[in-house]
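Dear Dr. H.,

I hope your travels went smoothly. While you were away I took the liberty of generating a structure for the chain from your last submission, since the lab meeting agenda had it listed for discussion. I wanted you to have the full record in hand beforehand rather than looking at slides cold. The sequence, exactly as received, is reproduced here:
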Amino acid sequence: MMCFFFFFQAEDGIRDAQESRGLGDVYKRQVSTQSTGQRSQPIEMTEQDEKARVLEADPIVQIDPEDERGRILPEWALWTAGFLTLVFGVSMGIGLPADLDGHGSGAMRRVSSVMGWTYFGAWSISFYPQLWMNWRRKSVVGVSFDFILYNTVGYLCYSSYNVGFYYSGYVQDAYKLKHGGSSNDVQANDVFFAVHGLVITIVTAAQCCIYERAAQTVTKTAMAVSAGCVLLVVIYVFVILSGEATETGVWSWLQWLYFLSYIKLFISVIKYVPQVYMNWQRKSTNGWNIYNVVLDFTGGFLSIAQLVLDAIVKESWSSATGNPVKFGLGFASMFFDVIFMVQHYCLYNPKNRAKQLEGHNNPLLPNDVNTTRSSRPSEQHTLV
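The corresponding predicted structure, in token form, is as follows:
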């Protein structure tokens, strides 16, 4: 009589009395071994550790949506900013002298002034949510560096344009000569907004140098386009200074300021494209503050509304044609702001992403194990 004995070596980690659910538990509860050959204690993994592992494995997710909740401005902050912007616009529009050179009734001039200061407030405040988020996170991951570079060059041109039109008597006289005596519609709020935007954009660029930025850099395309714009502006100045300047011709300071406005308009059209592409590539808007988008849309709408109202009051559309950068900037801002809002609220809604992360199932574990883990979030597990 012959007897056969079969010896099976049990897998580490399933020698306890708990009933095994299959191969998934082998991987889930397997005990790690140190390099010395001695078996170590099981490494406990909390639910937070599991989320960190999921985030590390997913290259698309740069920021944990749950962790981000404590780092973004609450929704009431947007409504507060909108209310304060309205109060600021009304106060400044009524308290300061109205423009429009006496055209229209006093009420219409006040309405135009309130619109101007309100759009100035909305556009000015729109810089701060992103600035605050970068500081709070100590990171600029999710913000396109190309966008920052384009914005800096654009606001440098826009500041020069507004300051030149508002403070230079020579330029104002040349404008009246070219437009049949009509004065330009660059107002004090335009100057303040442009200079303020330049300062805040430079501060944001400085944040990109000191905060966490992962592998983000400025692309060669953005550097080439920006350098080309600056070079053209410098060449234009040298031609005027060489003695070819006229009062209203192509080589005049008036046309040079217009040239700056065209560069600003060109940059305003292209500067949002890198950010739209980055959001699409990451399938996420994390790191890009949606509040600055909403406020920017508000400012763009009021900017165009003021131009249209001024044209109606003056009974001349030279208000719009004579200030193309303001008109085009408002339309470009609103167009891309709509795209950003669709990306944030519809395509890559962070709330949906958070739910996806919370309901993430480990592909190595059976469904009943994942269901048990989801139902008991405080339960700890051992790491593979």
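Two observations you may find useful: The beta strands are 44-45, 381-382. The first strand starts at residue 44 and ends at 45.

With kind regards,
E. W.
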